Amino acid sequence: MKKISPSELRHAIESKHCCRAGLANSVFVKLTLARSTMWEGVVHIFDLAGHPKANQAYAWAHPIAGTDRWQMFSMLHLPPITSAADAVRAAVMAEVDPA
């Protein structure tokens, strides 16, 4: 299964948020709940140029179970999202409770 590269994530951010993005850092994030791992993986942090509100974005990809495809996620660095872990937590919670 082909992984999603940081350059593919950069392109997705630039298309979705209509700005330029440059990879600044990559961090490992592990979210747990009651000693059970909810999600773990690498989140890429991008510096943004030309976005009216955010100067950074977080992006990662997760394999779609039972397929050879990946789902890409991106979140802007805007309160309450102020870290890679915050971004992943918000995405996980949105999937659990898509209200």
Could you explain the architecture of this structure?
The protein has helices at 6-17, 84-96; strands at residues 20-33, 36-49, 56-63, 70-76. With 99 residues, the protein is an alpha+beta fold. It has one domain (6-96). Strands 1-2-3-4 form a four-stranded antiparallel β-sheet. A hairpin with a 2-residue loop joins strand 1 (20-33) and strand 2. The longest helix has 13 residues, at 84-96. It starts with 5 loop residues before the first helix and ends with a helix.
What is the structure about, briefly put?
The chain is α+β, with helices and mostly antiparallel strands and 99 residues long. The protein has helices spanning 6-17, 84-96, and strands at residues 20-33, 36-49, 56-63, 70-76. The chain has one domain.
Describe the protein's topology.
Elements (H helix, E strand, L loop, with lengths): L5 H12 L2 E14 L2 E14 L6 E8 L6 E7 L7 H13 L3
Antiparallel strand pairs: 1-2, 2-3, 3-4
Question: What labels would you give this structure?
Answer:
25% helix, alpha+beta, 99 residues, four-stranded antiparallel beta sheet, globular, single chain
Order of H and E elements:
HEEEEH
Rg (C-alpha, Å): 13 Å
Number of helices: 2
Distance between the termini: 32 Å
Bin the strand percentage.
Answer: 35-45%
Counting DSSP E segments of at least 2 residues, the number of strands comes to: 4
Portion of residues within helices? 25-40%
Strand order of the largest sheet: 1-2-3-4
How many discrete structural domains? 1
Mean pLDDT equals 92
- Class per helix and strand makeup: alpha+beta
